[in-house]
Structures are given as structure tokens and as C-alpha cells.
Amino acid sequence: MVGGTHAVSMGDRGRIVVPVELRERLGLTAGSPLLLVETAMGIVVTTRERARDLVRRQLQGDDLVDELLDERRASAAEDDR
Fold it and tell me: Within a 10 A sphere around the Cβ of 19, how many other Cβ atoms?
């Protein structure tokens, strides 16, 4: 199963417990780095890898470095003429 809702409570020191089925499915162990992302809809808890993949998917097709390099090459070619 992917997805779902899991009710958790925050402890007195601000700690939350990730349910065992999520830890096992996502390969999380003690000390696994997680990100808390505040959004307009609330808080998203994710791994660094999943956040990185999400950003890459959102930017897919927009390779700004290659675009800048192409512009510089075109400009250099114009200067050489």
C-alpha cells in the first residue's frame, strides 16, 4: 500500500513517532534524516531523497544551466564572426 493517513501525536518534547509500517516501507531507521516542509496546506514530512526527486520532477525540462551555456556559446559565436 502506498499513501494513506496515519494519526500520530506529538510528545511533550515535540517528538512524533513514525508508524512502523511507514518506517519499514520507506526504509527509515533511527537517525534517518527527515525534512519538515511547511506548506499552505500544513506540514509535510519527507525524506531528503524524496524532496530532491520532487524538485527535480518539477524542474524537469527546464535545464537552466544548459540554457545559459547555449546562450553564452551563441554570443561567443557572434563575437567570432
Answer: 13
Q: For 17-74, write each residue's pLDDT tens digit.
A: 999 999 998 899 999 999 998 989 899 899 988 888 888 887 776 666 777 888 888 8
Per the CB < 8 A criterion, the answer to whether 25 and 14 are in contact is: no
**Whole-model pTM above 0.85?**
no
Asked if residues 37 and 51 have their Cβ atoms less than 8 Å apart, the reply is yes
Q: How far apart are CA 24 and CA 72, in angstroms?
A: 48
Running DSSP on this structure, what letter comes out for residue 14?
A: S
Spatial distance between the Cα atoms of 76 and 34, rounded to a whole number of angstroms = 44
Domain spans of the chain?
32-80
